[in-house]
Specification:
InterPro entries: DUF1835, DUF3658. This is DUF1835 domain-containing protein. It comes from Sulfobacillus harzensis. The protein is built from 9 helices and 10 strands. It is globular, with a radius of gyration of 20 Å. The protein folds into 2 domains: 182 residues, no CATH class; 69 residues, Arc Repressor Mutant, subunit A (Orthogonal Bundle), CATH 1.10.10.10. It is an alpha/beta fold. The longest helix has 19 residues.
Length: 267
């Protein structure tokens, strides 16, 4: 038996639709942001839920409870004797999935055989043509029918690559940072204001064509144009931080990105 490990809400739901004979373990939390720590620890789980409770606007108690349940399932699996079985980790080249994969590897026993499906490379081999090359930002954007052929491209993880991933996880944890981005093809800790210049740049471009800017429009532009996948909640959080620091002024309500209208300060 082998367990498929995936990261994110959307791919968790998609894998259920496939009805695989093997179990699927999904960590739905986005590890590209927020505090990291011992994945077996309830304290880490609660630290992350508390962090998300500050970032999410409006408050989403059902989502936070879903995160708790996801962490509990992963923790139970990592604690269980079955974790010595074969593991297949699905990972696209984005900060959330790469961080999640290194975290899982750091908490699995070294006796557990692990294979990796590099989703970007596997998808290109199976689905791309000379005329069409796809840009896959995260595994969850792939439609269900396109996933099964990727399973033939699972590659056993070498000891060297495994030790490197584990070391990377420990570096990320020890950094104490709350944001992770891909820098020089590696996941690295970044300051929480890493996205701020990009957000301001997108706002400036939009405000050249309109007098005021709805926050939800700015969030959408940032999600569409930033080369690395991120979340709408994270972008709106940074917009609120930019309001607090005086970069933006606003009218309307900060409780909803649809009801918040932005101006650059001084304009």
């Amino acid at each position: 038996m082998q367990t498929h490990v995936v990261f994110g809400e959307s791919i968790a739901g998609t894998m259920k639709l496939l009805g695989l004979p093997d179990p699927v373990m999904a960590l739905e939390d986005d590890l590209s942001c927020g505090p990291l720590g011992d994945m077996l620890s309830e304290a880490t789980r609660e630290d992350r839920v508390e962090w998300w409770s500050r970032v999410l606007v409006p408050s989403q108690p059902r989502y936070l409870q879903s995160l708790r349940r996801s962490w509990e399932r992963v923790g139970t699996w990592l604690h269980s004797g079955g974790r010595d079985d074969a593991v297949v980790i699905w990972v696209a080249e984005n900060p959330a999935e790469l961080t999640g994969a290194s975290g899982i590897l750091a908490h699995l026993p070294m006796t557990a055989p692990v294979s990796i499906i590099n989703v970007n490379q596997a998808y290109a081999r199976v689905h791309d043509t000379a005329e069409v090359q796809s840009l896959i930002k995260y595994t969850g954007e792939i439609i269900p029918d396109e996933l099964p052929p990727l399973m033939d491209h699972a590659v056993p993880l070498s000891p060297t690559a495994r030790y490197a991933a584990i070391a990377q996880w420990h570096r990320l944890v020890e950094s104490g940072g709350h944001l992770r981005q891909i820098v020089n093809a590696q996941v690295a800790t970044a300051g929480v204001d890493y996205l701020d210049p990009f957000i301001v740049e997108q706002a400036q471009a939009l405000l050249r064509r309109q007098e005021r800017l709805r926050a939800v429009r700015l969030v959408g532009e940032c999600l569409g144009w930033h080369p690395q996948v991120t979340s709408d909640a994270l972008i709106f959080w940074r917009i609120r931080c930019l309001i607090e620091s005086g970069v933006f002024t606003y009218t309307g309500s900060l409780k909803s990105m649809r009801d918040c209208f932005l101006q650059l300060a001084g304009n």
